[in-house]
Amino acid sequence: xxxxxxxxxxxxxxxxxxxxxxxxxxxxxxxxxxxxxxxxxxxxxxxxxxxxxxxxxxxxxxxxxxxxxxxxxxxxxxxxxxxxxxxxxxxxxxxxxxxxxxxxxxxxxxxxxxxxxxxxxxx
Length: 123
Prior knowledge:
Elements: H1 2-30, E1 41-43, H2 45-53, E2 57-63, E3 68-73, E4 78-82, H3 92-122
Parallel strand pairs: 1-4
Antiparallel strand pairs: 2-3, 3-4
């Protein structure tokens, strides 16, 4: 009885392994053949500016690390435009200082409230 249980477990394990390998190979062959894949046409920054002025731009997704913009135009086409280094506005440090100031202000308010509550508890 013990041997039949072990044989059943081996058979089940082998079957599960075979099914998972088959599903993985099926999934990898279907994935690259996706028909809905977006194809981007490369474009210069000047062309993007012209399209923006003509109000042909529907949506823009900016990647600051790669300095690229993925643009969806009003006619449904997709464009990839890049821009030179150090061109985006330098607002990062301003936002950092504002956030730091807000955090310090919140800490001071919480500390004041705790101090007032502590003094009221003594009286």
